Amino acid sequence: MRIGFPGTGTVAGDRTESARPEYEVPPEPDMMGKDTTELACRRGAGIEVTLLWHRASGELTVTVSDAASGAAFELPVAADEALTAFHHPYAYAAVQRVAY
User: Fold this and answer.
1) Looking at residue 79, what DSSP letter applies?
2) What span, in angstroms and rounded, lies between the C-alpha atoms of 81 and 17?
3) Which residues of 29-48 are buried (b: 16+ CB within 10 A; e: fewer)?
4) Which of 42, 64, 68, 73 has the smallest number of CB atoms closer than 10 Å to its CB?
């Protein structure tokens, strides 16, 4: 299977352009004055889950919004539990006794 990379004109496994790296790092957006950085985001079935890092405080939060019901909530999470909370926000909220 060959996978094309949009905008590069190259195909995975094509070694004709040896000067180009195998991947390109996207340019860093201007972060001056921004306190919150989105670390991960996923959407499905009308539900959006986002993992955020708050630069000034160093805190992590997971936000959940349900487009169908209009409900939304935010969970403060510890660094070692961030991915668990991101992947399973409803279960994490229940264990932490956070009402949603």
Assistant:
1) G
2) 42
3) eeeeeeeeeeeeeeeeeebe
4) 68
Hey, where are the domains in the chain? 35-95
Other beta carbons within 10 angstroms of residue 13's beta carbon come to: 8
| pLDDT over threshold 80, residue 78 | yes
What is the C-alpha to C-alpha distance for residues 49 and 55, in angstroms, rounded to an integer? Answer: 19
Residue type, 28: E
The model's pLDDT over 4-55, given as tens digits with 9 standing for 90+, comes to 445 555 555 555 445 555 655 554 555 545 899 999 999 999 999 999 999 9
Nearest to 51 by CA among 84, 29, 96: 84
Cα gap 8→48, rounded to integer Å: 30
